[in-house]
Amino acid sequence: RDLQGRISxxxxxxxxxxxxxxxxxELMAMIxxxxxxxxxxxxxxxxxxxLNGTVPxxxxxxxxxxWLALDANALTGTIPSSLAQLTxxxxxxxxxxxxxxxxxxxxxxxxKLxxxxxxxxxxxxxxxxxxxxxxxxxSLLLYRNSLNGTIPxxxxxxxELTYLGLSxxxxxxxxxxxxxxxxxxxxxxxxxxxxxxxxxxxx
Length: 203
Prior knowledge:
Blueprint: E1 4-5, E2 19-21, E3 26-30, E4 43-45, E5 50-52, E6 67-69, E7 91-93, E8 100-101, E9 115-117, E10 122-125, E11 139-141, E12 146-150, E13 163-165, E14 170-173, E15 187-189, E16 194-195
Parallel strand pairs: 1-3, 2-4, 3-5, 4-6, 6-7, 7-9, 8-10, 9-11, 10-12, 11-13, 12-14, 13-15, 14-16
């Protein structure tokens, strides 16, 4: 847990790697794009460091990844649409950074995701209805952003969800009656928004 400095570009030469975990250290500076050469990787965990700069587009080349965890750093910029190429992903954690811009609608292509956490960033715009395609999701955590617009009815298609966290945004409109289909939900967290209307009887 005492590693410091930058992640070496030369790690991109280790093309047989299937697992790379450098989390919970004191690593800083940017994530090197050369990690995109590690096409055998199934897990890349860089969480709990002080990494900054943007999420490299090159990570979209890691099509064998099932686990990508970049949370709890100081990453900026937008979520690259290239991440939609990671169709084997089960876990995507980008929370607790300073990412901004919109949630890419192409994330709806990641149909093997069971855990998606984008919470505690500076994301804005509407929640893409395409997230309703992620029918394997158990947890969808989008709270503590600046998301606006209405909650998509399509989230009612996520019938495996046990935790849906949309609190502390600027969401408007009514709570969708489609949430009545989320019969596996154990936690539904919608506070600190601008929702109106009645609580649907279906819930």
